[in-house]
Amino acid sequence: MSLTDVVAPSPAPENVAALIGERLSLSALHQLGGTLGGYSFVKVVVDRENEVIHFLNDARHSFHAIYIGEEILGVPEERVRADIDSYNQDFYHAPDRRFLLGILARHPQMLSLETVEVDTMPAELIREFHAFVARYVDPALPLVFKPANQLQERIVREIPPSELPRVFAHELFSTAPFVALNPGTATGRLRAFRTEAEYRAATLDWSDIIVMDRVPEDIPRLSGIVNARHTTPLSHTNVLATGWQIPNAVQVGALADVERRELDGKWVEYTVDAQALSLREIAEPATAAPPSWYAQRVTLEEPESERSPIVNLARLRAADRYRYGTKAANLGELHHVLAHGSQRLLGFYQVPRPPRENLLPYLARLLDVPAGASVPDLAAAARRLLDDHVRVPRGIALPFSLQRRFLESSPRIQQAIGKLKMALELDAREIEPLCVELQGLIRSARMPGALAGEIDSALVSQLAGVRTFVVRSSSNAEDLAGFSAAGIYESLNHVTTAERIFASVKEVWASLVSVRSVRLRRQAGISLDECYMGVVIQEQVTADFGGVLVTTNPMNRADFRTVYVNVSPRVTDVVDGSALPMQYLYSTVEGGGRTVSLGDATADLDSRAHDQLQRLAIAGRLLQGHFSPDYTFGSPVDVEWLADGDHLHLVQLRPYSV
């Protein structure tokens, strides 16, 4: 019996390699393929030489190349893997290629056909591929071509839709029912909120799993998040969820599903994986075991709060974080890399990453140098890329000791700090009002003349001529393993006068004792006595657009090749979640990118901007090597950036939690 005769959508047996030369029924699609992002898919190979189509059994062959080698060419898997670069060149780039490779996915109203992201298939092959596959799929569902990269997007736009039905990735993403943001499993009480007012009126506990259209930035530490509407993976709430290692996903219609199943207020087991999320009702435990993070206390390096000078950011190195905070120290380290280079820049590409045993030829292609270039030549080319295109805005760093001197200048502030510490020790109900009172005292206290003079003198000597500043937080209690602190401290833009600079510095200092920051640090076991706040004052850059880059794919962490970029006219739109940014994926191995979502924009960026984003992706990957904490060079970084003409201005860099 052939697979097309099987009605039940049970998986195909592993001894079946593929459905060959037959029409693919919908039941066979489910049997042969897998599920990703809520959609069923099956891999497709068209053998042009023999005019035969192959629908691969995913349980047996998860890679096109291995299937072609073993089942068609008679080449053992080991030999294919050993020469994978040569095979990939033939399969994805040769103009006279024998095979056309792709993925067929089922959507509610159609089937989509796409190639792999690196495929440079020209227009005539795209037409041929679509027409051939259309003869072998269920005619009840229209078959549309989905461009897999920006090159194909440009090609497809030049073909009349009547000749090639198409759908773009961003069109599908906007209607995708499910997006995995952070995989994992948790148990807890499900809390569904249809409005922010309902959320504000509720008291949340660490064991809660919340379901909302848009999760507010000030969430306490929870056990899980379900976003009932689309969001960006790089919003502060989603970055926090990643750092907390709690399951987090987008599930459109989740609120209605929770209501239908009457799960609100019930205990559930919540699981997120790459394919789907599940909410399974369970019995409420007699005593809920505390989460693992209760036992995993975050440890801070011992800070240095004795007198340190206000310095130019370019004078700092990463090791200065104990005096100036991680943000300032990382910016100083960036200045150093741009000024002096780094032998670690090629680190990511010098480590074999199966099935790619040697990534250096790929880097050579990205940097436009000969494939056989030596490591020193590649390092020089990497340095040129950074020299030509990457900048860090000028700025100064205020040390922890300046904050300490300010706090000690006011007896009322000292008294309020003592009360707050006592309340924290006793777990008293007065913690929140004491935080609010202390913040008010910090904001209203006069900046001592000596401190104001030091700040003013540093600005005059280092940043004279700057019209507009950004005043950023730089604490020792952020960007830590297990405690990212994304969005909990203040940063202020569009600051101009000396008076506003002093007020903004105090606002940043006050954010160290906000209700939310105190609560989250307390949950992580971080004492108020250990926490200090430095301040970065930088030139504000005028830019065409900006956003956030992470050197991983948050929606598929196993994909080592790809980086994820959010783009918006304002970086703050990305991180605060107030607007949906444009979203892109760029390969830092084969090169090329694709548009994932246009967000709230009405049109995509132009080709020049896409070229700029590709350079950003490569620069981010190089900097990942320098900032890697180990010698696998695999730890991703999170970069806030602005683009202006041919220049990329990096305004923040920190580790990205995975």
Automatic annotation (TrEMBL):
Task: Tell me which domain of life the UniProt entry assigns to the organism this sequence originates from.
Answer: Bacteria
Q: Where is the Pyruvate phosphate dikinase AMP/ATP-binding domain?
A: 388-657
TM ranges are none
User: Which InterPro entries does the entry link to?
Assistant: ATP_grasp_subdomain_1, PEP_Utilizing_Enz, PPDK_AMP/ATP-bd
What molecular function terms (GO) are annotated for this protein? ATP binding; kinase activity
Matching Gene3D superfamilies: ATP-grasp fold, A domain (3.30.1490.20), ATP-grasp fold, B domain (3.30.470.20)
Cross-referenced Pfam families: PPDK_N
What's the name of the protein? Pyruvate phosphate dikinase AMP/ATP-binding domain-containing protein
